[in-house]
Design a protein that fits this description.
By secondary structure, the protein is mostly helical. It folds into 2 domains: 88 residues, Orthogonal Bundle (Rna Polymerase Sigma Factor, Chain: A); 76 residues, Winged helix-like DNA-binding domain superfamily/Winged helix DNA-binding domain (Arc Repressor Mutant, subunit A), CATH 1.10.10.10. It contains 9 helices and no strands. Helix 2 packs across helix 3, helix 2 packs across helix 4 and helix 3 crosses helix 4. It is elongated, with a radius of gyration of 19 Å. The termini are far apart.
């Protein structure tokens, strides 16, 4: 949907056609859930935060000025709410889901498979110990294959800031993992 179309729909929603909000939800829900899952551990928590994002956006729709695209505005809400939720849950330390991160190892020997799984487990344990915003950046770039531009739009950071932070996060992970970093990424 083009920006002009979204602005017209938003105007109509603000003028009382509230049922149109479902169009915006359906359009943006998959990407919002992806953003949230990059920060929040656990599928149920991520789905809950994603729903909360749309509720908050609906009640804040009057404050949307159209200076950026609606999706960028929505992604910023999602990112901020996700980081808040992750910080809140950090004290409970829920391990991250590793869904598609471990490759199929059916052709490998059992020993090699167990070794690879152990390396991924060590890597994800280190990633789970990162600050929520850093975890979002590294997972968005490497696991969700988001571009630097997309990450900038979501986080409200400059391109150079995202690149510097990704570099620092990789260095920090390298220190956390010691010699195992090359094995995990190799």
């Amino acid at each position: 949907m083009k920006r002009e179309e979204e602005l017209k729909i938003i105007e109509r929603i603000l003028n009382g056609e509230t049922a149109l909000y479902n169009q915006l939800v359906n359009l943006h829900a998959p990407r919002i859930l992806s953003v949230v899952r990059g920060v929040v551990s656990g599928r149920e928590d991520a789905e809950e935060v994603a729903q909360d994002v749309f509720v908050k956006a609906y009640f804040s729709l009057k404050s949307f000025r159209g200076e950026c695209s609606f999706s960028t505005w929505l992604f910023r809400i999602a990112f901020n709410m996700s980081v808040s939720k992750a910080r809140q849950r950090r004290t409970e330390h829920v391990p991250m889901e590793k869904s598609a991160a471990v490759p199929d190892t059916s052709a490998e020997s059992r020993e090699e498979s167990m070794d690879k799984e152990n390396r991924f487990r060590i890597l994800y344990k280190a990633i789970d110990e990162l600050e929520p915003s850093d975890r979002f950046l590294i997972l968005s770039f490497y696991n969700h294959e988001k571009s630097i531009k997309e990450i900038c739009d979501i986080c409200g950071m400059t391109e150079s800031n995202v690149k510097v932070r990704l570099h620092r996060i990789k260095k920090r992970l390298g220190v956390m993992l010691g010699d195992k970093m090359e094995v995990c990424y190799g």
